[in-house]
Amino acid sequence: MPIVRTDVPMTAQLCDETIQQLVQVYPSCRSEILTTTAFGRPIRTLVIGEGPRKVIYTAAHHANEWITTPVILKFVEEFAEAIQSSGEIFGVDAKDLARRATIYTVPMVNPDGVDLVTGVLQPGQPQYEGAVTLSENYPSIPFPDGWKANLLGVDLNLNYPAGWLMARQIKFSQGYTRPGPRDYVGRAPLDQKETIALAGYTEFIDPELVLAYHSQGRVIYWQFGDIFVPGARALAEQFARLSGYEVEDTPYESAFAGYKDWFIKIFRRPGFTIEVGEGTNPLPLSQFDRIYRDNLGILVTAAVGLQLPMEDDRIDPEED
Prior knowledge:
- The structure is a single chain.
- The protein has 320 residues and is of the alpha/beta class.
- Helices cover 36% and strands 15% of the residues.
- The strands form 3 sheets. An 8-stranded mixed sheet has the order 1-4-8-5-9-12-10-11, sandwiched between helices.
- Helix 1 runs parallel beside helix 2 and helix 8 (232-243) packs antiparallel against helix 10.
């Protein structure tokens, strides 16, 4: 029986319990608490592998994109099971991959916001009512389904020091001038506990590559500004071939102050935003199996860092 639930919304508590279960069951997994949020929810890592190539995968920077969290969790579970059974994952020997790479994941960057969108928070509770108050500044945004921010009303993926002033200018011009459900950049870059912790963790790990999982659109963003990292475009195109997603330039109004933007700016190494699924966030769980199938090759290839032999591509992007 799989540990990772993919049939119910992935709440903060369920994510935390799932990670702890995976660590208990699989010796190849380990975890630590990076920080707790302003409202006391832990942000946990989930790490697998022991190799010299270090990569970081993140998910759920945005509250209504919580479907990305079980993508990461299920991948780690399948990888751990394959290590234990001396099997393969996406055609790659799992034990060999674990010797070559260490995969650091932060499966839920924004647990406070996720609990609002998934219905853990209910009317009458102080955190819910605080969000209602912030949402009243933006009545055109559906509540709570349109909520992307943390519960302080800051969009965490606009809070990194990579063109933050430009992001502020763009978002203020669009009317996002105060805390709310989405697109408020904060008072300063890295002024939120979540982004401080993730930036610090990234600097400590010093990875070769990062993946930032978002939804939706089935697209891959791979660059920041005029910084062109050698090999990044080729790797993005390989991801596209495996997933059926499109490689695109980031739209200008969203091209600043994100996690992968900051990583590319600081480290000059490949960073990717992967936008999974199609439709309106939050995406329904009925899309999960397709999303996972599309992204398994990306998750493995990013860890390998080399072109994999794909006689049959193992994934049919057209298959439902």
